[in-house]
Write a structure and sequence with these properties.
Blueprint lengths: L2 H10 L10 E3 L5 E3 L1 H10 L3 E7 L4 E7 L5 E7 L2 H20 L1
Antiparallel strand pairs: 1-2, 3-4, 4-5
Helix pairs in contact: 1-3, 2-3
């Protein structure tokens, strides 16, 4: 997938780095949230995000859970940051569908 793809997906949800605290920059200049910022955005939406390394496949899994502790979604990526950014894009998409 790649971090560029994850950031593309996040921007497609309407996310914008109006406040760049906790953000990093891609080579093309676009800002994207770092892991702590992503976790904060999940918390603001009522979810808890966790990331862990899956050694067998040498990838990272990002999983988010609702207030009840029930799994709400998960994604994988090459790095924890990539998985977290992609997870944020997927959570934002799902939240937009629920809100429609």
């Amino acid at each position: 997938m790649g971090l560029d793809f994850a950031v593309d997906q996040l921007y497609d949800t309407g996310w914008a780095a109006l406040d760049t605290r906790g953000c990093h920059r891609l080579a093309d200049g676009r800002s994207y949230p770092g892991l702590d910022r992503v976790k904060a955005e999940f918390a603001d939406a009522g979810f808890q995000l966790s990331t862990r390394h899956i050694q067998l496949f040498d990838c990272y899994r990002a999983e988010w859970r609702g207030a009840s502790g029930a799994a709400a979604g998960s994604v994988v990526g090459h790095t924890a940051e990539e998985a977290a950014v992609y997870a944020l894009s997927q959570m934002r998409r799902a939240s937009a569908l629920v809100g429609s």
